[in-house]
Amino acid sequence: MRATVMYGAGDVRVENVPDPGIQNPTDAVVRVVRSCVCGSDLWPYAQMEHSEEGTRMGHEFLGVVEDIGSEVSNLKRGDLVVAPFVWSDNTCDFCREGLPTSCRNGGFYAMDGVDGGQGEAVRVPQADGTLVKLPVAEDSALLPSLLTLSDVYCTGHHGVVTSRVGPGKSVTVIGDGAVGLCAVLAAKRLGAEQIILLGRHKDRTDLGREFGATDVVPERGEEGVERVRELTGGDGTHAVVEAVGAEQTMANALGIVRHGGVVSRLGVAQYTSIPLGFDAMMGNITVTGGAAPARAYIEELLPDILDGSVEPGRVFTHTVGIDGIPDGYRAMADRTALKVLVQP
Amino acid sequence: MRATVMYGAGDVRVENVPDPGIQNPTDAVVRVVRSCVCGSDLWPYAQMEHSEEGTRMGHEFLGVVEDIGSEVSNLKRGDLVVAPFVWSDNTCDFCREGLPTSCRNGGFYAMDGVDGGQGEAVRVPQADGTLVKLPVAEDSALLPSLLTLSDVYCTGHHGVVTSRVGPGKSVTVIGDGAVGLCAVLAAKRLGAEQIILLGRHKDRTDLGREFGATDVVPERGEEGVERVRELTGGDGTHAVVEAVGAEQTMANALGIVRHGGVVSRLGVAQYTSIPLGFDAMMGNITVTGGAAPARAYIEELLPDILDGSVEPGRVFTHTVGIDGIPDGYRAMADRTALKVLVQP
Fold first, then answer.
1. Which residue ranges does the record assign to the Alcohol dehydrogenase-like C-terminal domain (chains A, B) (predicted)?
2. For chain B, which terminal residue's Cβ has fewer other Cβ atoms within 10 angstroms, N or C?
3. Which residues of A touch B288 (CB under 8 A)?
4. Are residues A8 and A147 in the same domain?
């Protein structure tokens, strides 16, 4: 089959790789119907050192079950399913606590002999625990929004849940990438009163306004912090969702959060420490968030997508075929595409 | 009156200072019946640069109302009251949210013209909001435990509440000072299943066991982290209460916490950043805590002290008169005293 392999910064190729097959009785093989490029893929795309063997790519996909192992009982061939970006057994203590990203029998796509999502098919370990059936047809117009359950919409939701967004609360979302915009959508869904979006790409912040942002702040750094303070009577917001992952944006998040408030970090941390010293202590600031336990959120988030009341799939601005994936990376890195959908 | 003034590291004096009087209609003047030396006082005692004018000391006290301003309506002369370590109006939005340490009209003792607790009397601003009446006599044997409502027991409670300790949960408390021991007591009270105390002073950890610690780990640094891992099947504990405030103990806390768990920091931060990078993100680690909103906890914690079911006052190992306060500092700095009670 065809699949995506990254060999170094800027070097993404679509190549022939072995077809996946059942290896363990808990596996399923899924033919990919839609996948996409993640903002987090742009970090290695910018920084990865050259590798002779390369690394498979992609962790967001939905598709059709083509084969199942002997112990898979919740799925059958032909089911349309969405795959959260971490596979998990959904039965261990961490999974039962709502943290499938720390599953005792789980793991990541595109490593350790598991396929990546940016290809024609994927062997999914722990298929019963991981895959969630979608009650639509393979040609449904809802597929882009359903695909966001794999990662980006669940990740935005994770940011607002962990930062305790709710009715009457104010939240700042730092970053107008797809995760940030999905956090805006999730904050609106959970009833936030004020949703301030920090971003400087007008096409993106316009979509943010449609998703529910009440204010847009294009200023960056200290100026952006000051602007949010002005918009909140000097206090900052109850919640801050950090959807970039840079050292500076994390520092800004701590400058924006209200006393007693919560910073939830979603952007893959490009820093090793954060400035959480005496002042944050006196203000009882909480820092939380992390890799979103997407599997644990899908049942809650699915109905609103099925009835059309939320449309997180609007973050996809471009669609490519499988051989167009390298172009998709380029477009996202250039910021000409917000997020690229792949239709193999 | 006599009161404590610190002039620099190791230089604490008890001196004559002006008697406090009502300055604002919301003030009360409290004659101090019991006060104490705080572990946090040891930081300036170790590090303060010499100052000609010195700084008043003390923020934990209980006493008798001697005078009230014209707008004070909840208190009368002769009431025995405990003062939380931050004064606050108890009506602003932060106070209503349970965060009186961020009160819009609040502040700290021993600064800005407000007396310190380590003296014979204190002018307490926002007296109605701040002071809580104690239904005991001035010679009650419960006074030491009631005094801990001012700070140390509420602070321990804050650590376990914010780190979500409860039935079935495991918690590590780092530090066998009075705050750490009060955190153990508070964790026991809230039903924690496993309470691991990290400390190397046997007299203190023995009291920790009586307070509810199920395990004591005297090892420090990486060895201590490994020992906690061993005691928890490799996972670490759901909660970690950091009751020291050093950079290394904060790093250890992050090494001890279980995926999805919470580190609550109580020790006054002597660091400016914490190593909360990619790994903590993948593990969905939360860092929270801070200055305890003692005022908000007193009503909840008072009954168990009054009926004798908890005795946080056992952290006081030594008692001094007002002129013995410099000796009290020395004894705490030398670790010969755990916590020193002052009986002016």
1. 178-303
2. N
3. 284-288
4. yes
Asked if residue A243 and residue A325 are part of one domain, the reply reads: no
In this prediction, residue A94 has a pLDDT band, given cuts at 50, 70 and 90, of very high
Q: Which two tokens stand for residue B141?
A: 């044997």
Which among B162, B271, B285 is the nearest to A277, CB-wise? Answer: B271
The structure tokens listed for B63 are 């006493």
pLDDT at site A267: 85
Q: What is the pLDDT of residue B110?
A: 95
DSSP state of A111: S
* β-strands B28-36, B340-342 pairing: antiparallel
Looking at the 3D structure of chain B, how many domains does it have?
2
What residues pair up with B107 in beta bridges, in sequence order? B87
The pLDDT assigned to B253 comes to: 97
B242 strand-pairing partners:
B174, B265
CATH number, domain with residue B99 = 3.90.180.10
Mean pLDDT in chain B?
A: 97
Q: Supply the range of the domain harboring residue B193.
A: 156-289
Determine phi and psi for A93, rounding to 5 degrees.
-60, -40
Separation of first and last alpha carbons in chain B = 11
pLDDT for position A264 = 98
d(CA B94, CA B310): 29
* Segment B279-306 mean pLDDT: 97
Strand order in the sheet with A55-56: A11-16, A2-8, A55-56
Q: Is the confidence at residue B267, as pLDDT, over 90?
A: no
Asked if B281's CB is within 8 angstroms of A286's CB, the reply is no
CA distance A140 to chain B (A): 33
Q: Are residues B160 and B127 in the same domain?
A: no
In the numeric block, the tokens 């305790």 are attached to: A164
The interface residues of chain B toward chain A in range 266-305, judged by CB-CB distance below 8 A, are: 268-269, 271-278, 280-291, 293
First to last CA, chain A: 11
Do B275 and B309 lie in one domain? The reply is no
Among B262, B289, B316, the domain-final residue is B289
pLDDT band for position A255 (cuts 50, 70, 90): very high
Place of tokens 């209503």: B96
Chain A 50-109, CB below 8 Å of chain B: which residues?
94, 97-99, 101-102
The Cα of A341 is separated from the nearest Cα of chain B by a number of Å equal to 25
Q: Does A333 touch chain B (CB under 8 A)?
A: no
